[in-house]
Amino acid sequence: MKKIKLLLPVIAILFLFAFKSSAYAQQYPVLYFCEKYGSDGEVGVSDRFTTGYLTVMVKADGPLGLKDCSIQLDKYNCSTGTFSYYKKFDYKIERDMKYVYFEKNEESDMSFEDPGIYRVFLLDQNGRTVASGLVEIIP
Asked: Residue 44: pLDDT above 60?
C-alpha cells in the first residue's frame, strides 16, 4: 500500500508532461554579451571582457512587445557585497522584435570603463525587468 501511495505523485507528474507538446529550457528572454554584432552575426560571445564597448544581446521565443526600453548597469561593490546603480542607456525598438542587440550609438555610449562585475538589465518603459545578466570586466 505504501508503494502505491509513493507512485501516485510520480505517475501524476509523468501524466502531465506526456500531454505537453513542447518543453523549453528557457521560458523568458535571455540577455547575453558579445564584442560586436554585424553582418557576420555575433562576434566574441562571452561573459568576461576587457574595458571598453560591448554589445548586449536579447533573444526571446516571441515578440518582446517593447517600444521604449533601457539597458541599466549596476556595479558590484566588493566591500559591501551589494550592487549599486552605475549607468542607464535608453533605446527605441520595434514591438515585434524577438532578437535585438544594444550597442553604442549617437545617443548611448554603452561603455564599461571600470573593471568589475556588472549586473545588466533590459528594462521596459515602466522600469520593470524584462531580462538580466552578469558580466565581468577586466583591465
From this structure: yes
CA 74 vs CA 38, 116, 124, 132: distances in Å: 27, 10, 16, 11
For the stretch 50-74, pLDDT in tens is 999 999 999 999 999 999 999 999 9
Model-wide pTM > 0.70: yes
Please report the sign of the dihedral spanned by the C-alpha atoms of residue 87, residue 93, residue 97, residue 103. negative
The DSSP-derived string for 35-98 is SEEETTEEES-BSEEESEE-EEEEE-SS----SEEEEEEEEEETTTTEEEEEEEEEEE--TT-S
